[in-house]
Amino acid sequence: MKQQSAAEYIHHGQTPFFRLPASTTPESADAVILGVPFDAGVTYRPGARFAPYELRRVSALMQSFHPGCGVDVFGRLEVYDGGNVTVAPFDRAQSAALIEHRVATVIGQGAVPFVVGGDHSIALPVMRALRDRHGELAVVQFDAHLDTSDGETWGDDHHHGTPFRHALSEGVIARGALAQVGIRASWSHGGEADFTRRYDSLVLSADDVEERGVRDIASAIRERVRDRPLYISFDLDAVDPAFAPGVGTPVAGGLTSREALRLVRALAGCNLVGMDLVEIAPHYDHADVTLQLGAQLLFEGLAVLAQRRR
Amino acid sequence: MKQQSAAEYIHHGQTPFFRLPASTTPESADAVILGVPFDAGVTYRPGARFAPYELRRVSALMQSFHPGCGVDVFGRLEVYDGGNVTVAPFDRAQSAALIEHRVATVIGQGAVPFVVGGDHSIALPVMRALRDRHGELAVVQFDAHLDTSDGETWGDDHHHGTPFRHALSEGVIARGALAQVGIRASWSHGGEADFTRRYDSLVLSADDVEERGVRDIASAIRERVRDRPLYISFDLDAVDPAFAPGVGTPVAGGLTSREALRLVRALAGCNLVGMDLVEIAPHYDHADVTLQLGAQLLFEGLAVLAQRRR
Amino acid sequence: MKQQSAAEYIHHGQTPFFRLPASTTPESADAVILGVPFDAGVTYRPGARFAPYELRRVSALMQSFHPGCGVDVFGRLEVYDGGNVTVAPFDRAQSAALIEHRVATVIGQGAVPFVVGGDHSIALPVMRALRDRHGELAVVQFDAHLDTSDGETWGDDHHHGTPFRHALSEGVIARGALAQVGIRASWSHGGEADFTRRYDSLVLSADDVEERGVRDIASAIRERVRDRPLYISFDLDAVDPAFAPGVGTPVAGGLTSREALRLVRALAGCNLVGMDLVEIAPHYDHADVTLQLGAQLLFEGLAVLAQRRR
Amino acid sequence: MKQQSAAEYIHHGQTPFFRLPASTTPESADAVILGVPFDAGVTYRPGARFAPYELRRVSALMQSFHPGCGVDVFGRLEVYDGGNVTVAPFDRAQSAALIEHRVATVIGQGAVPFVVGGDHSIALPVMRALRDRHGELAVVQFDAHLDTSDGETWGDDHHHGTPFRHALSEGVIARGALAQVGIRASWSHGGEADFTRRYDSLVLSADDVEERGVRDIASAIRERVRDRPLYISFDLDAVDPAFAPGVGTPVAGGLTSREALRLVRALAGCNLVGMDLVEIAPHYDHADVTLQLGAQLLFEGLAVLAQRRR
Amino acid sequence: MKQQSAAEYIHHGQTPFFRLPASTTPESADAVILGVPFDAGVTYRPGARFAPYELRRVSALMQSFHPGCGVDVFGRLEVYDGGNVTVAPFDRAQSAALIEHRVATVIGQGAVPFVVGGDHSIALPVMRALRDRHGELAVVQFDAHLDTSDGETWGDDHHHGTPFRHALSEGVIARGALAQVGIRASWSHGGEADFTRRYDSLVLSADDVEERGVRDIASAIRERVRDRPLYISFDLDAVDPAFAPGVGTPVAGGLTSREALRLVRALAGCNLVGMDLVEIAPHYDHADVTLQLGAQLLFEGLAVLAQRRR
Amino acid sequence: MKQQSAAEYIHHGQTPFFRLPASTTPESADAVILGVPFDAGVTYRPGARFAPYELRRVSALMQSFHPGCGVDVFGRLEVYDGGNVTVAPFDRAQSAALIEHRVATVIGQGAVPFVVGGDHSIALPVMRALRDRHGELAVVQFDAHLDTSDGETWGDDHHHGTPFRHALSEGVIARGALAQVGIRASWSHGGEADFTRRYDSLVLSADDVEERGVRDIASAIRERVRDRPLYISFDLDAVDPAFAPGVGTPVAGGLTSREALRLVRALAGCNLVGMDLVEIAPHYDHADVTLQLGAQLLFEGLAVLAQRRR
Asked: Helix, strand or coil for residue F309?
């Protein structure tokens, strides 16, 4: 798949992800990148609705070859910008259905969906669609929060703090196959991780990453993933606010950008079936610091896929 | 011409000007909006290269009907986003040639070019192309500066401070047919306006607008324009930095946003053959204040055209 | 009602509106200021959920005596900070019910509610509660938009673009008693004002204010209000983005800050029964420009009440 | 007096005011511009200590000829950047003495001092030095606040809210010769203007300027000034926060930039003996909007002097 | 001690630290958090006066349970927001006396004071009050600067660069019991650390932390603290500007957020008698990056106390 | 060489680098710091033209003694602020000639040039001048990009992406003596490093630095430098955007500030003959985070020189 040249890009004055061809219905594709401009599930700082637009802009700076893993990503993969999912901004349930349907269509055409949110609530319909196709998933969730809250906290059961409780209890994620990395936000009580532990999840704090090192952590994660269909759910608040100021619910003391990038890269060889990148609130970003990291993380995920599809 | 609906726009996740169809080669069009991402002619704050991109984003908020003059702009006019002119970012002469050629093509197809810069140096090739087609122009230049400098000031004769000296001396603008509105920046010497006055230009300061009122000023301008082919060149620094902080060379004490909008609107009935909107430096903007005004000014220009092409 | 002294305020380190006493259940009060941290009805730039918090902060700078109309506002009026209405952030219908109930309680205690939103959708439950008490209202709506959309635009009938259609059709606002001031955003079609005109509303653009002057406009508005119970609904986007950058849906060419303040002040003598201040998105504000104006507008409204309750 | 050329300025990489020669002890000068990096008298938003530095930067953009009044300012006047007054940042009394001494030296050399603060408390020592030389002053104070507070408000008698009480009671300002323009901030009680009115001052609000117009207001001010030695004290908060966001104590509803500039310009013909420009807090500014206006206002003051010294 | 629920917090619309009960005179408390809105001791970027207000806002996001050390902080400790100390903004000596008196009262009631500045000069009266109660202190000072300057540097002996010279020479800190961590700013001369070394202080640079690791450094610090009453003085400029941009005197090359948090956490088991958090200048912060870290650091300090008071 | 005291600095109100004496023609000097306000070679975010000005401002905070390496930098070295090179902003070839000439003059006087850009294209004339004096150079290039592009990418052979291709092919840099550190941006194709590898350059990614550690990397670099004349070319985008947001072409995953500072420091003992610091775009910076790091890096380079010139 050829990116536009810089000149072509300048010529058109518009920005599909990574300057890729835009098509809502590509005939054949290895991967399709979708935007989901939806942030009605945010409890604190809203604005993730604008992230797909801004990530397109910033991703246009990136070229095809990843020198860190020596792979020509868009040389190996047919990737399309699939446009945005048309959500119902005032109806979360309907939006979830629309997202699931759209993702299912992409999967049905044999492509791997890469989804740029939007808030973290959009991960649930994406994972549901993937489970329907591939069976129970292994999930690596980068996050400062467990996101396994129940309906009591905010008087509602479907917002950006609940998707992984649903995914675990619905069997979308296989038992023991959820790794939660970067967890560090304070809890309302000591039992807040009981739910996820009941499903034998691997809960890793940012301090764990510092103390054990990226290699050891990556190895522990891969043990959980094994040969299962892998979904990466990347909430940018897993990363420290210094590296990702523009997020919905920042928490000090997170991953560094290099740790985040290397941990995604370390999943090379796994059977990646989908990825999301969520919770970027562009109007809290500065000088595109968060967006640059987001674009690079998405590129890392595509490189993981590219290395599989040689 | 139908804009995309909001839903269609969200679906595609990209932004042509005003959500219009994008086509570099529309078969028939009343107007074509071009971006020129070029700011190699800026002497102070650079960044206008990003203005076409950002103005597309902000213009997407606007609808088709202008309630102030009661006209359905995109109902009356076929307008396309013609993409960006592919400039040579490191070669000003070549860029000018590329701009002139591209604009000439648009004109040749019978469409009126609306050009979003870029710095003010891009106005010269646009005006040259228009003169070649329509003969000597009347020009209404909104600006804090005369832009009639010579090559001594910066050791160069083709930057954003010189286009109107060339346009006057080359006969691109008809004698007595240049109105310069918003002029107020300090001059290096008392004779700085001698050049433009030699061509019998109308030089109006922002204070003149306040003292005489919009109606009287508009009438004085129209007297200069008469039935000549009219080009509007809108440098956003004509407007006060409160209303347009994101410009290359701001000067306190400028036009208000309402004065600017009403002065463009007052050109209804004139034979508009082209318009530019230049010198927006988006990274100096705040909360899109400058960009919102820019999009509205462009819309006013289109409404002037729409009222003529009933 | 005594404000805290600056020293008392510094001592407590917290900020009720205007340093007033905070009480959710004041025994007797002339006015109660409520915050409504709700922005689930926003179609463009979210963030108004934070406006009550930030307006409290900025309002702490203000003293009791209004030199422009010569009235000691908090000397004449008992005013309390009634806290925020506890809304359901993920349920618009329930939130509307909670707002209406809370406002009804305030009214029932004989106090005039001043409500700081939040997005414009919160105005409907406030107006409903007031109508239930006082009968059909006269409403002066400051706004760039008519806010009389129907459910088709965004696939939903209750967001920040619809409250005045409901208020008119439900008879909350008396026929001929709605004045809409600052209207200027582009419309999707020429008939967009048909609905409000069917109710004989007075629609005034920002240009009308410039052309006719504040005194004449104020007089036209008062003719509509007469001795009816008056509700002021102030959407900050009525004001130009230069004076109010931090709003949800900015539109260039709006009112100046002085026009806005003077138009509210000109309602002195009317039977003010309530006021809202909505659509401030603080994270798009700069140097508190929007918030400063918001606090002053709220103070103007209180001064209107104070002049009545001598 | 010749400014550096742009090339010379770029060559040196440093910024005296208006690219003028820098000299703390010029042999002969018509005017000396001094910076006073002192903000220990600020009650709200600090930072004016950085204003002299930043105003130097922004003033470098300005040329010598003022087209509005047709005068070549630096052609007529010998003006030097006198550097900053070395204040004692932790000792207000000592700082006041240092300022007064430095200004007295400038005056003693026959030059008119233009002083860039710093907060408004620095105006008192400047005015004292001028009175010692020229006798009782006429003062035009642009301000949102009266600045005649006593020691009770903040438990201290010498901060940025008190200089004009001292100046009036000490006889620094002649009875009836103080004009306060832009006054509008709320007062703690109705008698807050009693003090200044006891000295027969002229108190004009920003609304007065709008209602009566610049010409009428200017004429009323000049009646107070007459042929007395005139001091202009310009607190940027006189101007609306839209035009001057970067100030210490902003108040909505102020002067426009054009009104401010024209009111200073209207003092041409008066016997200007000094001017200050205070209360700019650069880190609250955006895109240099406030600083641009400040530089232009300083230039207007110099132009007033230049017109006298033909 | 129960925090407000999120709903209660939203209801009240105000923000005590961590949503705790606010009381200036709690009957019994394990800890009291005080704000000190005082920055008259700052030599470079002012604004720390606003830090207590903004830190309250950001701390409201935090819950009770610290997953990193497995302790329910507000379950174990009675903590109150004690409001702000009423300082004399224009009198440093009086302010110091007021701070010392207020802290002494808190200590007298058996509570541990946590003090949110304000600039670093406020640490001295806090430490004095603690020494009067507990005897000579051990102090862990996180800082980029030694803060042991004398009166010559700025012509004054009591500003934010001098508190630890006074504390050492007055015997407030025990000999050998001061650990200074993060030290790296350039010195005016090679002997700048002579003073602190004369008292056998432990001076550790940020590079030391990187080279030796957090565990080793923590162990070296604890050797100095031993069983002495421990005071933590946390100047946010100890941390790198990437993690803490909003400080008064930033220095590149500082601690990471994780190092800072882990170093405080490593003091668990020590006899913590007080803590401050100083030098946050909120208007230089972005997206609350600095404030988020500050709130987390304060929470770490409370967790140290909570682990002792099981 | 004595810096100004803080008082002297405040007195003059201007800012030479590090408060050093400013002289374009110092009689004798160990080092001269030059600004090059030139960014006409930038392909993405412009603005480096303002970096010399802003770096002067921020460097004024720094003192003479470097505690990390125990050297009194300005005690040992005579250093002058040599002002800015007067470039031709619209002529890249002429500007390169002017830079080379000016640097050659500095070298001819026996001083080591420290050059603050400006974009990276300015490094080529600096290196050429140094090679002419000292013979083939060793170069340590800190960068996210190889900067060895050819003329095809942007239709031009002399912009900020090409200097090291010219330097290698012209023999300015000795074979095997180029170390490129921080390299990580995506490439257009897999052979992008072929050119530099043909010259046996050492290419090190930011991940390499994390994995191998600063000591090991420094040792590998020094092996390439040996006793050759050493030039350090520091493009701030080598550093992660968290630590250096204000750069022209940011790339996530870069060096930390401490790694960058320590890697420069580790060059002590080498024969440093020149250094540049380029690609800072101040208007994309926040709270001077990037500038603070830049000033510290420049100071590290001066300290390397100072340790040699004992």
From this structure: coil
Those residues with Cβ within 8 angstroms of residue D194's Cβ, 6 or more apart along the chain or in another chain = none
- Cα gap D186→D148, rounded to integer Å: 14
Q: Is B108 exposed, middle or buried (0-12, 13-18, 19+ CB in 10 A)?
A: exposed
pLDDT digits (tens, 9 = 90+) for F95-137: 999 999 999 999 999 999 999 999 999 999 999 999 999 999 9
C-alpha distances out from residue D294 to A177, C257, D37, D237, Å: 63, 21, 15, 11
Q: Strands D65-66 and D71-72: what pairing?
A: antiparallel
Burial annotation D208-238 (CB, 10 A radius, 16+ → b, else e):
bbbeeebeebbeebbebbeebbbbbbbbbbb
Q: Which of A38, A50, A90 to mutate to test the interface with C (most CBs of C within 10 A)?
A: A90
In this prediction, residues F89-99 reach a mean pLDDT of: 95
Selection from A305, A267, A282 nearest residue A77 by Cα: A305
Angle at the Cα of E68 from the Cα atoms of E63 and E70, rounded to 5 degrees: 75
Residue C28: its H or E element: none
ipTM for the assembly: 0.95
pLDDT reading at F1 higher than 60: no
Mean pLDDT across the stretch B193-211? 97
- Residues of A near F (Cβ–Cβ under 8 Å) read 6-7, 61-68, 70, 72, 75, 240, 242-243, 256-258, 261-262, 286-289, 292-293, 295-297, 299
- In order, the DSSP letters of E68-125 are TTTEEHHHH--EEEEEE----TT-HHHHHHHHHHHHHHHHHTTPEEEEE-SSGGGHHH
Q: Are E116 and E276 in contact (CB under 8 A)?
A: yes
Contacts of residue D27, Cβ cutoff 8 Å, sequence gap at least 6: none
Architecture of domain B6-308: 3-Layer(aba) Sandwich (3.40)
| CB-based contact E266:E301 (threshold 8 Å) | no
Residue pair B159/B169 in contact by the 8 Å Cβ criterion: no
Q: How many angstroms away from the CA of A41 is the closest CA of chain C?
A: 8
The pLDDT of residue C6 is above 70: no
CA A72, CA A66: separation in Å to the nearest integer? 6
E240 contacts F261? CB cut-off 8 A: no
How many Cβ contacts (< 8 angstroms) between chains B and D?
87
Separation between Cα atoms, residue C218 and residue F60, nearest integer Å: 55
Collect all residues with Cβ–Cβ distance below 8 Å to B1 and sequence separation of at least 6: B20, B21, B74, B75, B77, B78, B79, B80
C-alpha neighbours within 13 Å on the C-beta side of residue D83: 16
A170, containing H or E segment: none
- Give the C-alpha separation, C60 to C56, whole Å: 6
Hey, where are the domains in chain B? 6-308
For E155, nearest residue in chain D (alpha carbons): D88
Hey, is B64 helix, strand or coil?
coil
Task: Let me know: does A31 contact A74? Beta carbons within 8 Å.
Answer: no
Query: Which residues of chain F lie closer than 8 angstroms to E154, CB-CB?
Result: 6
**Nearest 10 degrees: Cα torsion F290, F294, F297, F303:** -140
- Among all residues of chain F, which has the CA nearest to that of A265? F207
Q: Shortest CA distance to E258 belongs to which of F244, A250, F293, A209?
A: A209
Select from F231, F304, F237, F291 the least CA-distant residue to F17: F291
The tens digit of pLDDT for each residue in E191-232 reads 999 999 999 999 999 999 999 999 999 999 999 999 999 999
Q: Which residues pair with E274 in a beta bridge?
A: E231
What pLDDT is stored for residue F172 in this prediction?
Answer: 98
Chain-chain contact of A13 with B52 (C-beta, under 8 angstroms) = yes
* Both structure tokens of E212: 């030796």
Nearest to C65 among D190, D250, D253 (CB): D190
DSSP state of A22: B
